[in-house]
Amino acid sequence: MEVESGAAAASKDTNRLLRENNATPSSSTSPASARRKKICLITVGVVLAIILIVVILSLTVLKAKDPKITPNSIALDRLSSALDLPRLRVDLNVTIRIDLNLKNPNVVGMKYKNTTALIYYRDELVGEVPIPQGKIGAHDTKRMNVTLLVLADRLVSNPNTYNDVVVARSIGFTTVTRISGKVKILNMFSISVSATSTCVTVIDIANQAVSSSACKTKM
Question: Can you give the residue ranges of the Late embryogenesis abundant protein LEA-2 subgroup domain (predicted)?
Fold first, then answer.
């Protein structure tokens, strides 16, 4: 009986030691695991907060805005005409110069692409001039001079030219200048922006000068 009691006591001691050994790692790793979990939650929270701030800024203060084109003046650089009575037509050479400002309203710089200024006579394309690519700083304004040469052969082929030049003694043209580019918000988001300026110009043939002009800008 005494032997059995001693064996039972030894067995109980062994079981107690095993339980203590098994409990020790759990109690020692639990605080570390909790700290890691807390750090992960804080990191995720900070990242989400940064993303939210970036989104809010992108939609408000840093929101990309289209540039603005403002024509300052439209002048007639050259006008010459030759009347061909037998064929009831007129050879007309016209050069129009447009002085305009390109304003970038964004808080970051803007890069604009190669583009082309166009000139129309009664909805028919009669001239164009390339505008090279460039850059414009934040809240900056860039001055441009665009010289448009009307192609005489395209005017000759239009039956309305003779009546406008010889009878009405005035001829109207529509010029279209479009600027397209991109702004980079926070050096991460590249956003396209553009603006178009359309001007209707009437030339007095007798006085060889611009008699009227009206422009509008579409963004």
Answer: 100-193
Residue 99, both tokens: 């002085």
Query: Could you tell me where the DSSP H helices lie in 82-128?
Result: none
CA distance 98 to 75: 7
pTM of the predicted structure, to 2 decimals: 0.72
Q: What is the DSSP letter of 98?
A: E
User: What's the gap between Cα 133 and its chain centre?
Assistant: 13
Regions of the chain where pLDDT drops below 70: 1-29, 54-62
Considering the four listed CATH numbers 3.20.20.140, 2.60.40.10, 3.50.50.60, 3.40.50.620, the one that applies to the domain covering 68-218 is 2.60.40.10
- List the domain boundaries for the chain: 36-63, 68-218
Runs of H (alpha helix) within the chain: 2-59, 152-156, 160-162
Helices (H) and strands (E) in the chain, counts: 3, 10
